[in-house]
């Protein structure tokens, strides 16, 4: 790396915020910028975002980061992104054909139900590693084509592009010169063959997605293109990494070390464990490409939960707590559960758009169970926070059925992990250490590490010196034993939410 060009700027384009984080030559964060994003829910179960605003926010924070460190010091860009969200756009103009369909969106539930009824799920799971669910991108791509005038024919002619958020941002950053996605994002579309690492002809035919509309797949670490045509971003900055945000966080925690299971706590949660092969017979979980570091395709066993931090946000809105300023709200969420000994028997199942892993029930709906006259706001907030830990424990229980799975520690990241009460409850429930990253921007860190690997021609092992430290929450094993009964009661309430 040039002494003068020592900065890697990682864009972390998430669901609720776009962030740009600048790392110096030692891997230290020297600047960070963030811009909030809006989510629209025009109908029940529909969740979408403006693709133009996703782009505008991303360009804004990248530009501010470049301005803060000096353009002459920027060696590379990296991108981590919200996964499964789909953008369709016209190749000639670069304008989107519709709003971006969020990963949370369940508008394709009927289409997915039909696939299952027709018996396609075993084939889809065998080829892509993913169960049939509206979460994944392929059914959203199909919806976009079905709801665009002459959509399929135009896509077959290459006039319409379909991609995950990384592809959309790369296309715009390079003025249409680069149309790629990485293996991690491609694996979340339900169109990539896990064994070949390329688009699968049978899946493309089943979902009705023309290959001409899709980006080419590249390793997560390597040259994707160079910036061009933006007044606030110099031309010629290489984009050296692209990866889904949850995969990036797993990479930044421990570079894929065995036994280090990762849970990202955000709007939703991804629980992911590195595994040695794509072979998995645990039907309630997804097998996915964790990343391709330029040399090796690494796999991950994953459970996706749609509503974790989102569950707490919903409860804070519903109880009036969200009217507090952000810092006061965060403090209240940390303090309130400590003021009560229990939830007084209340459980909150946040199936606000259905349940993800390990249930995969898009027809389930949210449920507050066990209300009594003595229940106050503190009990409800505690119930919402507990629901995060139970959902993560449900996924880890399913993971234990995989022959190659081990759990030595739960590595955690994301905004809600700053809640110490929540982290200790998670450790006590699981009976294993919970290790929280000191770096809030762990997805950006993972993307930056992959860019550094390409920039400096390093091995993955040589990146270990750049890994962030962790704070450990040790489990109280006596409390662990007591919490098992409550966790079993939670599972009974989940069953009620699915009726």
Mean pLDDT: 93
Structural class: alpha+beta
Number of DSSP strand runs: 23
Count up the helices. Answer: 15
Q: Which quaternary structure do these chains form? A: single chain
- Bin the strand percentage: 15-25%
Cross-sheet strand order for the largest sheet = 17-18-16-15-21-22-23
The major β-sheet equals: 7 strands, mixed
Query: How far apart are the first and last residues' alpha carbons, in Å?
Result: 58 Å
Question: Helix amount, in percent?
Answer: 25-40%
Radius of gyration: 22 Å
Protein name: ATP:glycerol 3-phosphotransferase
Domain Carbohydrate kinase FGGY N-terminal: 7-251
GO cellular component, one term: cytosol
Keywords: ATP-binding, Kinase, Nucleotide-binding, Transferase
Protein model, in words:
Keywords: ATP-binding, Kinase, Nucleotide-binding, Transferase. One of its GO terms (biological process) is glycerol catabolic process. InterPro entries: ATPase_NBD, Carb_kinase_FGGY, Carb_kinase_FGGY_CS, FGGY_C, FGGY_N. Belongs to the FGGY kinase family. Residues 7-251 form the Carbohydrate kinase FGGY N-terminal domain. With 499 residues, this protein is of the alpha+beta class. Helix content is 34%, strand content 23%. The strands form seven sheets. A seven-stranded mixed β-sheet has the order 17-18-16-15-21-22-23, with helices on both faces. The chain has a six-stranded mixed β-sheet with strand order 3-2-1-5-14-13. Strands 4-7 form a two-stranded antiparallel sheet. The radius of gyration is 22 Å and the shape is globular. The relative contact order is 0.12. The mean pLDDT is 93.
């Amino acid at each position: 790396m040039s002494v003068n060009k020592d900065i890697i700027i990682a864009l972390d384009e998430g669901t609720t915020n776009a962030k740009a984080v600048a790392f110096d030559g030692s891997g230290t964060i020297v600047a960070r910028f963030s811009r909030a994003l809006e989510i629209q829910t025009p109908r029940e179960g529909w969740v979408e975002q403006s693709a133009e605003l996703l782009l505008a926010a991303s360009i804004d924070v990248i530009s501010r980061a470049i301005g803060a460190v000096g353009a002459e010091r920027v060696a590379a860009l990296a991108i981590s992104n919200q996964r499964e969200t789909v953008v369709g756009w016209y190749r000639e103009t670069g304008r989107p054909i519709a709003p971006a369909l969020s990963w949370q969106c369940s508008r394709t539930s009927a289409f997915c139900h039909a696939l299952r009824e027709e018996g396609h799920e075993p084939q889809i799971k065998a080829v892509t590693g993913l169960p049939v669910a509206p979460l994944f991108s392929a059914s959203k791509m199909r919806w976009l084509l079905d709801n665009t005038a002459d959509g399929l024919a135009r896509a077959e002619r290459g006039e319409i592009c379909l991609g995950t958020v990384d592809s959309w941002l790369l296309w715009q950053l390079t003025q249409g010169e680069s149309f790629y996605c990485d293996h991690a994002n491609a694996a979340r579309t339900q169109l990539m063959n896990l064994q070949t690492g390329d688009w699968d002809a049978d899946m493309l035919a089943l979902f009705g997605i023309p290959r001409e509309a899709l980006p080419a797949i590249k390793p997560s670490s390597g040259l994707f293109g160079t910036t061009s045509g933006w007044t606030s971003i110099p031309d010629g900055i290489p984009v050296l990494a692209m990866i889904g945000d949850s995969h990036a966080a797993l990479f930044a925690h421990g570079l894929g070390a065995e036994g280090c299971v990762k849970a990202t706590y955000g709007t939703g949660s991804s629980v992911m464990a590195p595994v040695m092969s794509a072979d998995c017979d645990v039907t309630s979980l997804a097998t996915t490409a964790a990343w391709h570091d330029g040399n090796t395709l690494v796999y991950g066993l994953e459970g996706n939960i749609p509503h974790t931090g989102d569950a707490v946000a919903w409860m804070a809105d519903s109880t009036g707590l969200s009217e507090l300023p952000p810092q006061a709200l965060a403090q209240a969420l940390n303090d309130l559960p400590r003021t009560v000994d229990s939830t007084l028997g209340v459980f909150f199942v946040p199936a606000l758009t259905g349940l993800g892993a390990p249930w995969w029930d898009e027809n389930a709906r949210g449920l507050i169970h066990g209300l009594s006259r003595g229940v106050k706001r503190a009990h409800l907030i505690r119930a919402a926070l507990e629901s995060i830990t139970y959902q993560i424990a449900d996924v880890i229980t399913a993971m234990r059925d995989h022959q190659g799975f081990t759990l030595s520690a739960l590595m955690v990241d994301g905004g809600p992990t700053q809640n110490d009460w929540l982290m200790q409850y998670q450790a006590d429930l699981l009976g294993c250490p919970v290790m929280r990253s000191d770096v809030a921007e762990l997805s950006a860190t993972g993307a930056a590490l992959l860019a550094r690997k390409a920039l400096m021609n390093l091995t993955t092992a040589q990146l270990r010196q750049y890994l962030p430290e962790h704070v450990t929450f040790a489990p109280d094993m006596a409390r662990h034993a007591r919490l098992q009964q409550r966790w079993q009661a939670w599972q009974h309430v989940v069953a009620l939410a699915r009726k």
